[in-house]
Amino acid sequence: MKRTRLVRAMGISLVAGSMAFGLSAQAAQGLYSADELMDADVYDSNGEEIGEVEDILMSDDMSVHSLVIKTGDVLGLGGRDVVAERGSFTVRMEQDDKDDDDFDDQDYEVHMESTQDEVKALPEYDESWWNQTRQGLRQAWENTKETSRSAWEDTKQATSSAWHNVKEGADNMSDRAEDAVDN
After folding, report:
1. What is the DSSP letter of 124?
2. Which residue from 79, 57, 59 is spatially nearest to 68, judged by alpha carbons?
């Protein structure tokens, strides 16, 4: 009976701990409209306009993986599509719209942490980039699954060993208590 309560208590602690970790890792970052983010002006780290958002690439979990930025075009011609991965840019409301709470009229700016030259060196958005990135993400997922499986097996083994030690310790205490009562 006591053993069952202890198992339940440990299980509840493990679940609560994993939920807390999961929530802290997924802290809210804000709410943005993908429709309004499309064609947003993009600025380099010096505040100079360098292009506009051409596309938004999503991960399997539907989070933003990266932005495709059209750079270097003149009057809509030429230019190059480059990929800016999440973490290399921030999205902000346009300065003129900070006091405007109109739901249908949100305009954004994308600010890169890179200079114009560094942005030019970003990978080009093409089929080769797409295939390589997709394969890399698949491999990362397989590695994560394998690591999780291994961690789960290690946890099961450690828990089983700990329960065995607790049971053995309780049995020894019980035996010593009986011996003390008999003497």
Report:
1. B
2. 57
